[in-house]
């Protein structure tokens, strides 16, 4: 959700200029985009609306009414109840470590597979692809027993290791196809200048592909941030939990506390959105990065 | 979003295991596993919100526990229902298990764990500390599990602190507006709904997409039932005839209620939450659902007067004990855990539970001050004392909840006849019986 949400905004901006030229077709597209934008943003708006509404107000007037007054207690209570600051820190530290390690691992793998042209690399890629499509539920029990044996059950390290591997499987798959197209001129030039394989990787390949790596890094971070299922299984103590797991506290057996749930949802998506906004330029640059002068 | 490519994780742990060869495999002395009286911490989990009746009462219980055990630190963690529901088995099988926790009652949850040997047998404690005297027979049903993990008999594995039951919530202002009285028989109840219908008001707020609709169906079936039917249906004492008088009446009457417009056709897609909010907004005069709504209605409904009554004419009502305290087999402080359970059963905590809008199992009705709460508890005591708790319709078989939701939805939107509906729900029930070898 957070990844897709702002996209229409950027494409809508040039359309406004176009509308000034009074071109009816463009005008229609603008309307269509605005409708689309509204559809994408509407759920978020409802969340924001209910996050600042008192429970009695919600009960009396329903989820779509405007709040009669701004009610911050829901957000404040939730923050204190789950010790949200610590969850933010846990999520942040595990996501950033996974993003960094995942990118490094992807680079090493793809350098071997894409540029090094290791024997049987097609099969490696097939393996990574298959690994990508396995549902997490299948892995839970084996991972549970392994982590218990190793003494990493209920420990952030286990989640970091698992997601580093999961993310880098996808990263390897993507980056290998990028590196397979890597301009051989650059590699030859580096070889002529006497650079070894190691030097070529860090001094030539990585700098040239930095925009793509930026995209991977951003995605890894957000994906890891949003992960729910495996952290739910592996992070038992409240002190170790991440943000999405903490949000689950509010889902009761039979009852749902709609206003506090909205408040928590708002707290939960804000950091990921913020991160996305900050790194948005990296993303757009990365997408056009295939072309090399 | 395009995630869920979990895969490769298996590889992660190949890596992890190689690391582990150097790490030592932790663990060690569990000699004091059984006594635990010299333990210095009590790790306690539950998943009730801090403002709910249970949350309030249990927090107080923790305070009292601390007073009585000055040297012991209580490590309380509020868990999510989902985390416990999904992972209890894995957690209780590891060293991260708490010393005591709240857990769901029933065959598929507490029953399963007891069968796997993950829970401590509490039978001796229950008799020594008198919990068996405080809990009525129908409440004890969910506390005891036999060797196959089936509730109703065998050893004690859990202790419930609170009860719950299904009742009728009604909007007093709307009743007054149309000059209607609280019905005392099913006949009168039907007349009240007719009166609303005649004025163009749909009487019942129903959530067909979740549990509420099947509880109405069950409530209707119970109006023609006695205890032996409940024992047959829930505890597999005898084979249940799905086309017998009870279930046929339930299905037929439910379908009639839809036909007469007591239940709106579109309620098949309504969730429980929306059902409750629609009633809170005064869109419907009547809501048939459980006591778990009570505290919320009490604090949120400001626009009209409301009250409750038991489903008219019924001796049996859907309901049971609430969730139970269980002590994991791996608990390192078992005797402290027993002390804690004992405190939650004490009159002080039970009365606090009642005064906070919950349904205590062993409260002194005289010390409940709020008249509304008193009515709630009196009604529960009435049912409980006459052995009138009939549990919930989805209990007898694993995955039966979804079968019933889909079946009752068919009744609401008219895609199934009552007879076809009964055939549909009979099949998984009987398959489960066969699996159990009964």
Automatic annotation (TrEMBL), chain A:
Matching Pfam families: BPD_transp_1
Entry superkingdom: Bacteria
Q: Known Gene3D superfamilies for this protein?
A: MetI-like
Topology in the lipid bilayer is annotated as: Multi-pass membrane protein
Location relative to the cell? Cell membrane
Q: Which family does it belong to?
A: Belongs to the binding-protein-dependent transport system permease family.
Q: What name goes with this protein? A: Carbohydrate ABC transporter permease
Q: What is the lineage of its organism?
A: Bacteria, Bacillati, Actinomycetota, Actinomycetes, Micromonosporales
TrEMBL record, chain B:
Keywords assigned by UniProt, alphabetized: Signal
Q: Where is the signal peptide?
A: 1-23
Q: Which InterPro entries match?
A: Bact_solute-bd_prot1 (IPR050490), SBP (IPR006059)
What is an example of a Pfam family matching this protein? SBP_bac_8
* Cited PANTHER family: ARABINOSE-BINDING PROTEIN-RELATED (PTHR43649), DIACETYLCHITOBIOSE BINDING PROTEIN DASA (PTHR43649:SF12)
Q: What is this protein called?
A: Extracellular solute-binding protein
Source species of the chain: Paractinoplanes globisporus
